[in-house]
Amino acid sequence: MTRRNRLALFVFCCLLCTAPATAQPLSPDARRGLAVLATAYPGILAAIEVAPAGRVTAVLSDGARVVYDDGRPRTPEQLVDDPDLKSMFVQPYPLGPVVGEPARGFSPGRQRVLPLFFALYGHDKAQVSVNLRPVRFFSQTIPFNARQGAAEAFARVTARLEKLAATDPRITRYLLPASGGLVWRMIAGTHNLSAHAFAVAVDVSPRGNPYWRNLPRGQNILSVRQAFPAAVVAAFEAEGFIWGGKWSEFDLMHFEYRPELLLAARLARGEAVPLASVDGLIRPGR
To answer: FRET label pair with 276: which of 10, 36, 190, 242, CA 20 to 30 Å apart?
Structure first.
């Protein structure tokens, strides 16, 4: 090899070493899930890193890094105790009236990725407190988190429910009194923070609507689920709230602001819902 050729080869190798890395393409599943998050929570994704092997990491607005899919199989219990971002979408939330008793372990929405909730609503009780806004709920006032449109959505739910109650006052017995606001606590029997810790959930008529830990495990309560007014559930779901009455570990009093799950549910049933583009967020990962 001549000296000139050796020099050309050396320069070529240097260019290869210094050329910017190119991110791998997102899988269809990761693209859809992250686009749903970006649509439901504008600004929550700062970047999406795709490693050469295809591992996808979401960089959140507070700098936290969360793996989308770590590839580990999970039992229903592990989906709740140790979820990745994909885990939130594994069990599709069922829109509409309750038509049957859910399978054991089917509780869409109980899979909460805490770093995501911290970035959305605050990292501790003090930060969440700063974000609270009082929202009228019939004759009560309930502090709700104003970030990501949660308080505004809850106010719209109230307006819908008041119209329903004007037509059928009997529904208020399923709703009042209600409890909500900031309750920084763990979920009973777990080491996971409750949605109430972030002030994005409300419990309606806690004494009248049952919770699974207060009844024998495995008991079929389909008739109780179906007795809860479907119009009330529809009013909450229309504004981005899920209902704990559709969980196997039922919590009929519980409504929680989870617009990403309602958006994913609408897509799953074939609705043409526009999603935010995530192409500009993708960059090479390690």
So the answer is: 242
